[in-house]
Amino acid sequence: MKIAITGATGQLGWLVVEKLKAQIPAEQIVALVRTPAKAANLGVEARAADYAQPEALEAALTGVDKLLLISSSEVGQRAVQHKNAIEAAKKTGVKHLIYTSVLHADTSPLSLADEHRTTEADLQASGIPYTILRNGWYTENYTGSVGGALAGGAFIGSARTGRISSATRADFADAAVAVLTSEGHEGKTYELAGDESYTLAELAAEISRQSGKTIPYKDLSVADYAAALTGFGLPAGFAHSLASWDADAANGALYDESRQLSQLIGRPTTPLATVVAEALK
């Protein structure tokens, strides 16, 4: 059995590799990366694979039984890139393809959901046994701003009172490993989100409680939040996307109460307080 992971040196991919190594022999794991030399510290076989190079993908997937297709980070190019990977998997006889999509991809208003919907359709039409992991937001997407909130005296966003059911990358990595190492997941789509939900005001209150400083939540318009992010050095396009996703969160796009994630990994998802504590270290 050979299990391959795309984007294996990424923030989610390397966690999956490390957690897999704790459950199966390292020689059964294949890290698919653009530059294999950069994956040397993973302790598994590394193969060159680029979503934009179909022939290289076919070579990289030769002999692979299960493939975890972690969605590309190149927004706007992902649908084509993912289709290249799916076609290569089909040609090389991959027996099970697991794809990381986005929470409620079929109905989500998030701008990034369109490409996920396209990939899900391509996967379903491929004839390859598949599992779709519709991952919610990473808690780290928000706690990564803790330092800035402390420095600026407020946590800013555009999510109003929308509730966010996020989970950590480690939680989502455990879900991927559970599917890769157990049976009965073919043809299933999982809506994966944290057990608890919170508003950004509640997140700010938790930061305040743990830091001992008063950090209020300041809700901004999408335009003002995007402008603030641009002022922090983010590219204008990405800043606008982040702000628009917050606005979608205000309307429930990042909320889910099904607890499918904790059921899949066999434990509660990581509490918000724990992630805030890590961010404050």
What attributes characterize this protein structure?
281 residues; alpha/beta; Rossmann fold; UDP-galactose 4-epimerase, domain 1; 7-stranded parallel beta sheet; two-stranded parallel sheet; 12 helices; globular
Description:
There is one protein chain. The protein has helices at residues 13-21, 54-61, 78-92, 113-125, 140-143, 146-152, 169-180, 200-211, 222-231, 236-250, 260-265, 272-280, and strands at 3-6, 29-33, 45-48, 66-69, 96-102, 130-135, 155-157, 188-192, 217-219. The strands form 2 sheets. It has a 7-stranded parallel sheet, with helices on both faces. It has 12 helices and 9 strands. It is α/β, with parallel strands linked by helices. The longest helix has 15 residues, at 78-92. Helix 2 (54-61) packs across helix 3 (78-92). Strand 5, helix 4 and strand 6 (130-135) form a beta-alpha-beta unit.
